[in-house]
Amino acid sequence: MKQAQDELRAAYLGGVPGVAVSGLVWLVAGLVWDARGPGTAFIALFFGGIAIFPLSLAVARAFGAKPASKTNPLNALGFETTVPLFAGLFVAYALIGRDPPLAFALFAAIVGARYFAFATLYRDRTYWVLGGVMMAVGYVAAIKAALLPLNVAICIGAVEFVFAAILAARHRARA
């Protein structure tokens, strides 16, 4: 298990590019929300989300990371954790016309929940904290939306950028 985790951590630079690219996507969606409204922001989040893996892979390769072997038993876990995101997108899409802040807040919590599996993928419990913080932001935004209006997409983007920096420092220290 440790060998498989080490291989994935090396191939994806500890997941740092993915967290950073995801943070950028959320920030762009937040800015689009402010400029064009939540419906357009949801479209930006959807198409940006599709681009996260290929862009993060390109960043990892640009920094010299070699691909993981096709026989790595943890390869499937990365894909398997993506499937629930489609359910989350469906929920968010169903809510976007009725309650846009709730739609984004719930999707943020779902994305945060996905990060818990990354602790296993990369053998780094920092992902538990990242996931927990994202879920907390999503929950607070969902519960307190009327009392505490905030652009949850910008908040999530900022959280991911902070954690990308923390994860990058941890990855460098392990290398």
Question: How would you explain this protein's 3D organization?
Answer:
Pfam families: DUF7010. The chain crosses the membrane at residues 12-33, 39-64, 76-96, 102-119, 126-142, 148-169. InterPro entries: DUF7010. Keywords: Membrane, Transmembrane, Transmembrane helix. The protein has 175 residues and is an all-alpha fold. It has helices at residues 2-11, 16-36, 38-62, 75-80, 83-96, 100-115, 118-122, 126-143, 152-174. Helix 2 packs antiparallel against helix 3 (38-62) and helix 6 (100-115) runs antiparallel to helix 8. The radius of gyration is 16 Å and the shape is elongated.
Largest sheet: none
Q: SSE order in H/E notation? A: HHHHHHHHH
Unreliable stretches covering 5 or more consecutive residues: none
Per DSSP, what share of the residues sits in E-state strands of 2 or more residues?
under 5%
Kindly state the number of beta strands. 0
Shape: elongated
Count of individual helical segments = 9
Topology, please?
Elements: H1 2-11, H2 16-36, H3 38-62, H4 75-80, H5 83-96, H6 100-115, H7 118-122, H8 126-143, H9 152-174
Helix pairs in contact: 2-3, 2-9, 5-6, 6-8, 8-9
Can you tag this structure with a few keywords?
175 residues; elongated
Produce a short descriptive summary.
With 175 residues, the chain is mainly alpha-helical. It has helices spanning 2-11, 16-36, 38-62, 75-80, 83-96, 100-115, 118-122, 126-143, 152-174.
